[in-house]
């Protein structure tokens, strides 16, 4: 019943926005990276039929989908035996038995300090999702961006944004976290947020379906992002995409374009000790909160949308060929 209620509300919101005379469609895309795609006119990507870690398929799906809109992508039994924490993808001419032109590695490991050197050896470019500045010594290793963990975000992005733009807030601060990773930090944050009386908090340690989580975000003024097994988490991508004002601890991990404190997100102490105070300050300053939320949405569209990241990937590959 809950699934039907959420789905119907999203459909209803999309329909209402569509028939209203003041409805404005999504702004035209401005491509951040413009690789010379004509150089790939006779090329294709060979994508692995299986990953060394099968759950990686959930978010590498987004990259594969976006790349397939720019270049033919064919699944093939590519050797992944030495690919712990990474996936090997091959760029080659079209046709059977084609010789590789370039090998690229997508490192989805949560550990920012680890590089799969065996996979790196044969690669032209190595996209590290949890990229630490210490990797800058090797020019082949570049920030890999980050992706949602399900297709729900992109399927419902337009109606979710429309719902948020109505500003009919149900919650002041949203923060929902599982306790499998960084349980100490997350429990402390939940405890601080639960036992304060300065604003309405929604969240806790109970996990819900992804589309329900997205709908909660859409009606929250502020959202909290905390690290999990890695510094970057899926919820950050969801929050930025919807244009929520995000409060998160400082982190050295980098995306293709750095997130700027006070512009795209608001940083708090690494231990979350000032979490309540930071959220309360944002709730009292609506112009700043609205500005940061809008900048977060624009940041996602320019640097994190899967269609932008597909061009980013091809930009780096072609630059090194």
Short descriptors:
5-stranded parallel β-sheet, disordered N terminus, alpha/beta, 6-stranded mixed β-sheet, YkvP/CgeB_Glyco_trans-like, Rossmann fold, 11 helices, 321 residues
Describe this entry's structure for a reader.
With 321 residues, this protein is an alpha/beta fold. The chain has 2 domains: 37-147 and 306-320; 152-304, Rossmann fold, CATH 3.40.50.2000. Helices cover 38% and strands 17% of the residues. It has helices spanning 2-19, 57-67, 117-121, 152-155, 157-165, 183-194, 210-218, 234-242, 275-284, 286-304, 306-320; strands at 43-48, 73-76, 86-93, 102-107, 125-128, 141-143, 171-176, 201-204, 220-224, 245-249, 266-268. It is elongated.
- What's the gyration radius in Å? 20 Å
Name given to the CATH architecture of the largest domain: 3-Layer(aba) Sandwich
Outline the low-pLDDT stretches: 1-6, 15-28
What shape does the CA trace take? Answer: elongated
Number of helices: 11
The structural class is alpha/beta
Top CATH class of the largest domain: Alpha Beta
The biggest beta sheet is recorded as: 6 strands, mixed
Spatial sequence of strands, sheet with the most strands: 2-1-3-4-5-6
Helicity, as a percent range: 25-40%
Percent in strands: 15-25%
